[in-house]
Amino acid sequence: MVDIGLFTQIVINGLLLGGIYVTIGVGFSLAFGVLEVVDFAVGEYVMVGAFMGAVLAPLFGAEGVFVIPIVLVVFFAVGALIQPLIHHVTTGDRPHPLLMGLVFTFGLATFLRGGVLTVFGPNSQDVPSSLLTGGIAVPGLGTFPVVRTVTAVFGVSGLVVFMYYLYRTRGGMAIRAIAEDRTNARLMGININRYQSIAYGAYAALTGSAGVFIGMTFNASPGMGLQYTAFAFFMVVLAGMGYLPGVIIAGIVLGLTQSFTAVYISGNAVLLVLFAIIYVVLLVSPAGILGKGEWAT
Predict the structure, then answer these.
(1) What is the spatial distance between Cα 214 and Cα 69, in angstroms, rounded to a whole number?
(2) Helices (H), 169-218
(3) CA–CA separation, 69 vs 72, rounded Å?
């Protein structure tokens, strides 16, 4: 017999987790749409963001949440500097630009993971935040852990701001034009390199800051990056390649799937279940569950 209280708590935890996963998925999907590159480094951005939180939080009274503005700025600057390198290896007369982008970002991911292992060693580190401890009990529903609730609010707020920029500003219109047709965007006078740098910088900033929240929710570990790379791929395939609104649904599905699998099956089986779902989606609807993305081929 199903324990209703436990079931409700799993749903709450899954929805709250989905809130932060949406942030990672939107940035990853945008990088694919604008730069036409599948970024293998997405999980390592999460990992480095978590370690930045672990290192910087003690400087701010052991409050990881106060580190977020610094992480946003640093990751945006780093992303804006990395984008020209990706552009360089994926354009011009080079054959197989998608493969070149994959190789470059795989090398970047390896470099980041190796750098963190060299500096911090293989052990996990906590991202402290005494302000976000405990939970808020809601009669009839369950307990909302404060850190997960704040994490979800940050994720949804970041998504709203990001979508406003994309759909209500001239810069966002330029980015969407590049994602739609790079050649026509250039003919219309749009500075491709500038807006690609902004898009990749925003993606890196969102992903790195999500890493701080994930570090507060769980911990920071050098090996965590691969898991979040897999999560990002799951969300983009489920949403439909390049279709941003679908990422919201995909993030929620991911959070719920992770929570239910961890409780009713095993935490070690989460990736197995996710890949089974991806396999079915690719067979039934290669353009995503809403059928509005590019075909995953």
Answers:
(1) 16
(2) 170-180, 182-187, 192-217
(3) 5
pLDDT band at 288 (very low <50, low <70, confident <90, very high): confident
Q: What is the pLDDT of residues 62-101, one digit of tens each?
A: 788 889 999 999 999 999 999 889 888 887 777 777 788 8
Nearest to 249 by CA among 30, 31, 22, 28: 22
Between CA 104 and CA 107, with CA 106 as vertex, the angle to 5 degrees is 65
Q: What are 137's strand-pairing partners?
A: 143
- Tell the residue number behind the tokens 């054959």, with chain if given: 95
In the block, residue with structure tokens 């989460």: 270
* DSSP class per residue in 52-120: HHHHHGGGGTSBGGGGHHHHHHHHHHHHHHHHHHHHHHHSTT-S-HHHHHHHHHHHHHHHHHHHHHHHH
Half-sphere exposure of residue 15: CA atoms within 13 angstroms, side-chain side: 12
What lies within 8 Å, CB to CB, of 219 at 6+ separation is 50, 124, 125, 126, 127
Question: Do residues 144 and 213 lie in contact, with contact meaning Cβ atoms separated by under 8 Å?
Answer: no
